[in-house]
Design goal:
The chain is mainly alpha-helical. The chain is 83% helix and 0% strand.
Length: 35
């Protein structure tokens, strides 16, 4: 997870964008995979 976060930071994503990606999208995808 940290490698993903670091990669997003290096690519210039803002804190808000990273939070949206890791918080919303990531949880939604995992929820669909694990259900």
């Amino acid at each position: 997870m940290f490698d993903l976060t670091e990669g997003l930071i290096r690519r210039g994503y803002t804190d808000a964008e990273i939070h949206g990606i890791l918080g919303g999208n990531f949880r939604r995808v995992l929820g669909k995979i694990w259900s």
